[in-house]
Amino acid sequence: MNSPTHQLTISPLGEYHGVQFLLARDELTHPELPGNKWRKLKHNLQEADRLGLNTLLTFGGAYSNHLAAVAAAGRLLGRRTVGFVRGDELATRLLNPTLARARADGMELRFLDRETYRRKHEPEFLAALLHDTGPAYVLPEGGSNALALPGCAELARELLTRTNFDVLAVACGTGGTLAGLLTGLDGQRRALGLAALKGAGFLRADINQLTQQATGRTYTNWELNTDYHGGGYARLGPELRQFIVDFRQRHGILLDPIYTGKLLCGLLNLAAKGHFERGSTVLAIHTGGLQAWVGFGGEPG
Predict the structure, then answer these.
(1) Do 155 and 185 meet the contact criterion of CB atoms below 8 Å apart?
(2) What is the top-level taxon of the source organism (predicted)?
(3) Distance CA 268, CA 265 (A)
């Protein structure tokens, strides 16, 4: 499966405070594997093939876009998938729509208490999981590792050839997408990440580590803003919800509640504060994640 970049479209969002905003509609790339999730999986799947590993083992929360994407990829590509879910209490509840869809796609769901889940990076713990599941290719939570970067870099290079912009902006969870975009930009233009997590200053070091692992380089043409997390990772306050509703009414584009909604709300607020040079163009990326609305009672009206 090739990265379906031919379906990418760019929608102008008008001019705000002297700044032109564009939106790269990467959520339109594939009906089941949209946006950055497929881009981060692409080269990892190739590596799993090279190693002869047909099982994908990964981690995520109850409404994880990453779990949903890995499960869908498993069904579409004929891979066995195993998902370790944060929260052992979920094992005794009716599955939410995200986990139910993942199971329907063939993912084996295994639930870990939160303390145990925090051990997911420990080599000995991973070895114990693999002893139980059998040989598997391990994908980190969120899918961010060095092999996640080349797929995102392809998007950056495509955007450089398709449109003029001064700043490329993306929401950040684990930092892998921004790190990949930086390698694709290769020092051209500036990049801006808006963290979706509260207290996410640690991502700066993580992003530098990822680019160093992938290319042997770190970059200086970027910044991370941690002011627009909306109260926390899975928090959707009334102001952000209303912004997303208004945005959809004005532009006909649905934003997701965890990443791109915060991104656009934050970018327009930064423009109002004079953060961007007047006359500049900011290109934001819609990374998908619309399935997350099931955790908030469905799409907003």
Answers:
(1) no
(2) Bacteria
(3) 6
Q: Please list, residue by residue across 48-85, b when 16 or more beta carbons sit within 10 angstroms of its beta carbon and e when fewer do.
A: beeeebbbbbbbbbbbbbbbbbbbbbbeebebbbbbbb
CB 246 within 8 A of CB 212: no
Can you give the pLDDT at residue 155?
94
How many residues are given for the chain?
Answer: 301
Question: From CA 3, how far away is CA 24, in angstroms rounded?
Answer: 15
Query: pLDDT of 214-241, one tens digit each?
Result: 999 999 999 999 999 998 887 899 999 9
pTM above 0.85, yes or no: yes
Residue 279, class by beta-carbon neighbours within 10 Å (0-12 exposed, 13-18 middle, 19+ buried)?
A: exposed
Question: Tell me: the pLDDT tens digits for 92-139?
Answer: 888 999 999 999 999 999 999 999 999 999 999 999 999 999 999 999
CA end-to-end span of the chain, whole Å? 35
Q: How many CB atoms lie within 10 A of CB 296?
A: 15
Active site annotation includes 64 = yes
Closest by CA position to 159, among listed 186, 140, 141, 120: 186
Residues of the chain with pLDDT under 50: 1-7
Which residue ranges form the domains of the chain, and what is each CATH number?
Answer: 5-32+146-296 (3.40.50.1100), 54-135 (3.40.50.1100)
User: Which pLDDT does position 235 carry in this prediction?
Assistant: 86
Which residue in 3, 64, 144, 280 is the catalytic one? 64
